[in-house]
Amino acid sequence: MLGRTLTSTAWGMVADRIGRKPVIVLGIFSVILFSALFGLSVHYWMAISTRFLLGSLNGIIGPIRAYAIEVCRPEHHAIALSLVSTAWAIGLIVGPTIGGYLAQPTEKYPKLFPVDSLFGRFPYFLPCLCISVFSFLVLISCIWLPVCAINPQCSHCLYILLQMCEQNIHHIKIFLQSTLI
């Protein structure tokens, strides 16, 4: 959390400059890499540093909220933001629960995981591996995310800007009609 606290504003500025999708993809890739390394930690300093790096390179909550606003019509903005917050809250509840069930598998499930296996040497690698596999599937699904940032090359953003201009012209017409009558 310390790494995320220190870098989330910077990741928001990077997302404004290069686009939301690259920042989201980099954040998900950092989850894949540093969660696996966290599970393979053999020293306390290694565990702390991998978690710090995971947080530092994963400032995606702001860009995801901005992305949700950019890809949704204005009447759906509230639902989009509440879905992002709800997904975050569900992850905070379900993630540690599943991680607790999968931690130390050689003690809990000795028939499936022998003591001399990789999971015996690294008792917290199984939940971290599951996180990495799930994040890899999410990373693959990012292929279908439309590229969207407020820049002239993005056709979806041009569409949004044109809609905003049309709405402003409509409001100006209404204002002029009401003042002239």
Automatic annotation (TrEMBL):
InterPro entries: MFS, MFS_dom, MFS_trans_sf. It comes from the Eukaryota. It holds the Pfam family MFS_1. PROSITE patterns: MFS. GO terms for molecular function: transmembrane transporter activity. GO terms for cellular component: membrane. It is found in: Membrane. The keyword Membrane applies. Gene3D superfamilies: MFS general substrate transporter like domains. It is a multi-pass membrane protein. Keywords: Membrane, Transmembrane, Transmembrane helix, Transport. Residues 1-181 form the Major facilitator superfamily (MFS) profile domain. The chain crosses the membrane at residues 23-46, 79-103, 124-147. The keyword RNA-binding does not apply. This is Major facilitator superfamily (MFS) profile domain-containing protein.
